[in-house]
Design brief:
- A hairpin with a 5-residue loop joins strand 6 and strand 7.
- It is rod-shaped and about 115 Å long.
- The chain starts with a strand and ends with a helix.
- With about 325 residues, it is of the alpha+beta class.
- The protein has two domains: about 1-255, CorA soluble domain-like (Beta Polymerase, domain 2); about 255-315, Methane Monooxygenase Hydroxylase, Chain G, domain 1, CATH 1.20.58.
- The protein has a seven-stranded mixed β-sheet with strand order 2-1-3-7-6-5-4.
- It has helices spanning about 30-40, 45-50, 115-125, 135-165, 175-200, 215-280, 295-315; strands at about 1-10, 10-15, 25-30, 60, 75-85, 90-100, 105-110.
- Belongs to the CorA metal ion transporter (MIT) (TC 1.A.35) family.
- It is found in: Membrane.
Amino acid sequence: MINYLTLKNGHFTPSHTDIEDTIWLAVEQPTEEEVNYLTTTYELPKDYITGVLDDDENSRFEGLHQNKLEEPALMLLQYPHATISPSGYTQLDTFPFAVILTTSGKVISVINKSADFLQKALSTALPDSTLPIQESLILYLSWHISTYYNRCLKDLIQETNKLEGELKVSTENSQLYQIMDIQKSLVYFESAIDSNLEVLNKLYTARIFSDPRAHLPHLHDILVETKQAATTTKIQLKLVDKISDTFSAIVSNNLNNVMKILTSLTIVLTIPTIIGGVFGMNVKLPFANREDAFFWIAVATTATCIFVIYRLKKRNLL
């Protein structure tokens, strides 16, 4: 699907076709026909578009060595996207997002999965800037990807804190599965953010910018957000590793406590069974001829059980 967007009063407005005022073509899950149309119309290398169809595509730059944009340039970054893990819980993976600068002055973004950051970018006004529209858009989209990582990391931190609160009573494996999915998300984040950071650093020396210094304040903000995400990811990954080890130990300990209580209760409940079995034998026994034998046997059994319970509690076994 191709969305043709024009800019009016700082806001992106969709149009039905590619007109002269179109500045941004937002492409999502392109078909073979759309790929052929874009590569033919804008004279693009086919892999600029089809690269995002490979979920494992790495972040990279192509064509930014030019002093002037005489051929299309590509910036490919990775962004987070929520999926369902094999264990059945939410997991954040990373997928490629391509930004193509055409020689006709338009920007083409290509994505193969839906993305919240892109929806927000489309609905938010483009900040005023003296930069050309292509340069503004490439920085604008990079900013939204960087901030989206930090929003996702806040959600992961909240989920981790919630799981910590369940540690005291946990005896099941569901929390361990969730911790594992958070770990996987952070591993994906660490790799993707480091790759994005390498690409964004190259914008400092990119020759295609008309004014080599005008974009630096915007780029600085993007790099600050990206480095913050990278630092948070590394710290959170270490914390989650520790929490995972602690979680496993606590789950095992809670299970041991349950088994300890059940074993102690079994011992207590065995006492009436033994006494009842002895006095149920068809042989001559003490108190067998007394009319109140059952009462005294019951009293003795109850007293024995109470004494055993007291001793077990004193030894912290019940």
